[in-house]
Amino acid sequence: MEKQNISDKIKIAVIDSGIDKALKSSITEIRNYTSEDEFDLNGHGTSAFNYIMGYCQNIDVIICKVLNSSGKFGSSPLAAALTDLLDTNVNIICMPLSFAGFENGYSVNIIHKLLEDLNKEGVIIICSYKNGSKNSFPACNQYVIGVYGGYLDNNSVFWYKNRKMVTNIYPECIRTLNNKRCFFSGNSKACALATVIVIEIIKKNNNRCINIYDKLSSYTNQAEWEYSQINRDLESIFCYSGINEHKTVKEKNFFIKKTIINILKNYVKDEFLVKTDREFDNDYYNLVSNMDEFINLISKKLSIRISDKDIFPHDFINLDYLISAVSRWDKNYEKT
Question: What residues pair up with 15 in beta bridges, in sequence order?
Fold first, then answer.
């Protein structure tokens, strides 16, 4: 089946590690396929859910928990979740997950058949590839929109061909377990963004029965591409949104600089203070050991309100970048 039967309200299912208990009222139903508590104990599912809901309103969401507290899952829970979704009139299934390797056995064969059956019912299935892989399951299935992440110009840009999609991997600050901030990135973020893009296309077409795959082909920014062309270089974070160099710390920023230095040592590693031109590496995300408390303290000490959407990864590259970020946060805060 090529066209999707869309009611007035789009219904999606997010297959992941569940959601935070505090968000229960935001969703239609929770289905648990693990031996653990029905709520999220990992944070990954909450991050994906909050990302989608941050861009999409007026949608129904079914949460299917298949990942445990360690972020692990098997083929049997996934098969059970997909089986149950056959009878829910769901329009989109978002799966920001992948098997580390192909599992052999009866359950995987069932999953292949379930994906085919769901496709016949008009369900749009979106799944992330494993980070660093161009061939992981179930994203590689012919009935699935398999999603890779790359550094693209912005979230509106995407590449698409033959049910393979590339969306923007740039980390975004969102809320996870216990309403704490985190940076959401990787192919999981790319998958959640692909889901947002599909929802927006459906709404743009007034929820009519459309061929979403034709629409993706017509709206894509790049229809011909190879896996080797996908940019996943962390250095790209420096140049995102035209930010190519940090501002020089000037005397007028002395109070901000002093305040930050006084509280910084409790939340970041020592090299954050001394390396003005540090190289960007895979240890970057470990520099800030507790971003949430750090941001809240900055906000309190400097009497500014900092929006999550105004927090960027490059803000934490070094002290000079952070001074510039605080100046931006203060400027963007409309005092009342």
Answer: 64
**Which is it for strands 159-161 and 164-168: parallel, antiparallel or unpaired?**
antiparallel
The rounded distance, in Å, linking the Cα atoms of 310 and 325 is 9
Query: Does the predicted TM-score (pTM) go above 0.85?
Result: yes
Q: Along the 336 residues of the chain, how does pLDDT read in single tens digits?
A: 454 555 568 999 999 999 999 999 889 899 999 999 999 999 999 999 999 999 998 899 999 999 999 888 888 899 999 999 998 899 999 999 987 655 556 777 889 999 999 999 999 999 999 988 888 889 999 999 999 999 998 999 999 999 999 999 988 999 999 999 888 989 999 999 999 999 999 999 886 678 999 999 999 999 999 999 999 887 777 665 544 444 444 545 677 777 777 777 666 655 555 544 444 444 555 556 677 888 888 888 888 889 999 998 888 777 777 888 888 888 766 543
Establish whether the linkage from the previous residue to 77 is cis, with ω within 30° of 0. no
